[in-house]
Design a protein that fits this description.
With 270 residues, the chain is an alpha/beta fold. 42% of the residues lie in helices and 23% in strands. It contains 9 helices and 7 strands; from the N terminus they run αβαβαββαβααβαααβ. It has a 7-stranded mixed β-sheet with strand order 3-2-1-4-5-7-6, sandwiched between helices. The longest helix is centred in the first third of the chain and has 19 residues. The chain is globular. 43% of the residues are buried.
Length: 270
C-alpha cells in the first residue's frame, strides 16, 4: 500500500514492517530519477527520504558527495550497511523534509523517490529544499499518478482504516504529480518545472501472493492492517483488496499491475 497519503499533519512511520522489500520493487524508479538528474562529478547530492538508500547509492557512483536523509532510524541503519557492503561513501543522517540537517546553499541536487510526496506540509518542504539548494540547483522527484489498481487498492485501505477509527475525512493531498500544482509550490523560490511520465510494473505469481507480501512488509499496510485486526475488520479489507488486484491484473497466468508516475525536474536559475 504505497500510494496512499496520510492524515493531515501526520507522517507515516516507515521504520515498521520491512520496507526493504518495497525498496527493491522501487529500484527501477530510483534509477530513472537518478538518470533524470544528470549528476555531474563533484556535485553534492541530497537523497530526501532516502529509505534504504536506493537513489543515494546510485548517485554515489557519479563521483560527488552524497547525503541521505530519512526520519526512520532503522532504514538509515540498513542504508549504511548497504553502502559499506558496496564500498560507497554516503553520509546518512536523520531528518525530514521540513527540517533538513544540512547547511544553507550547500546542495546541488535534491533527489526524492516517492518520499517528499508524504511530507505533511508541502509548503514547509518546498521552503526547506529551497534553503539548502545552491543557486542553479535542481530538484528531481517522483510522484505517483492517482489512478490504476494500486491507487484504488491503497485508497480503499486508507478509507477502511479511517472509518474503523472514526477519523474525519482527510483533505485532498497535494498533487505532487501535477505540473501546475508544482509550479505554484516552487515558482516563488525561482524554480522552473518540467515533468515527464513513467511507468512501473509490480508483479508476483498471483494477486494473492502480491497482497500477502505487501501485508507482511509494506509499512503502511502493516500499520493499517494492525489497526483493523484489533477491531476484527482485517479480513473484510483483505477480501476487498484482493478483488481490486484481481480485477486490475494485466496478465493471464501470473499477476502484474502497472502504476504510472511522474518525474519532475525543478531547476532554479543561477
Amino acid at each position: 500500500m504505497r500510494q496512499s497519503g496520510q492524515a493531515a499533519g501526520q507522517a507515516p512511520d516507515w521504520g515498521i514492517g520491512h520496507y526493504e522489500s518495497t525498496a527493491e520493487q522501487l529500484l527501477p524508479a530510483a534509477r530513472a530519477v537518478v538518470d533524470s538528474a544528470a549528476i555531474r562529478p563533484g556535485e553534492h547530492v541530497l537523497d530526501l527520504g532516502c529509505g534504504t538508500g536506493n537513489a543515494a547509492l546510485l548517485a554515489a557512483g557519479h563521483g560527488g558527495e552524497v547525503t541521505g536523509v530519512d526520519p526512520a532510524s532503522r532504514l538509515l541503519e540498513v542504508a549504511r550497511a548497504r553502502a559499506a557492503s558496496a564500498g560507497k561513501e554516503v553520509t546518512f543522517l536523520p531528518g525530514e523534509a521540513a527540517s533538513l540537517p544540512v547547511s544553507d546553499a550547500s546542495v546541488d541536487v535534491i533527489l526524492s523517490v516517492f518520499a517528499v510526496i508524504f511530507a505533511p506540509d508541502p509548503g514547509a518542504a518546498a521552503r526547506e529544499m529551497s534553503r539548502v539548494l545552491v543557486r542553479g540547483g535542481r530538484i528531481v522527484l517522483s510522484a505517483w499518478i492517482p489512478a490504476g489498481a494500486m491507487f484504488e487498492m491503497n485508497s480503499a485501505a486508507a478509507e477502511a482504516v479511517r472509518q474503523a477509527v472514526g477519523a474525519p475525512p482527510a483533505p485532498p493531498p497535494f498533487a505532487w504529480h501535477d505540473r501546475e500544482a508544482l509550479s505554484g509550490l516552487l515558482a516563488p523560490y525561482g524554480f522552473r518545472v518540467d515533468i515527464a511520465p513513467h511507468r512501473l510494473a509490480f508483479s508476483a505469481p498471483t494477486a494473492r501472493d502480491f497482497l500477502d507480501t505487501e501485508s507482511r512488509n509494506h509499512p503502511l499496510a502493516v500499520a493499517g492492517l494492525g489497526v483493523l485486526e484489533r477491531l476484527g475488520q482485517a479480513e473484510t479489507l483483505r477480501a476487498r483488496l484482493l478483488e481490486i488486484l484481481e480485477n486490475g491484473n494485466e496478465k493471464r497466468n501470473e499477476f502484474q499491475v502497472t502504476s504510472r508516475y511522474m518525474i519532475t525536474t525543478a531547476r532554479r536559475d543561477g
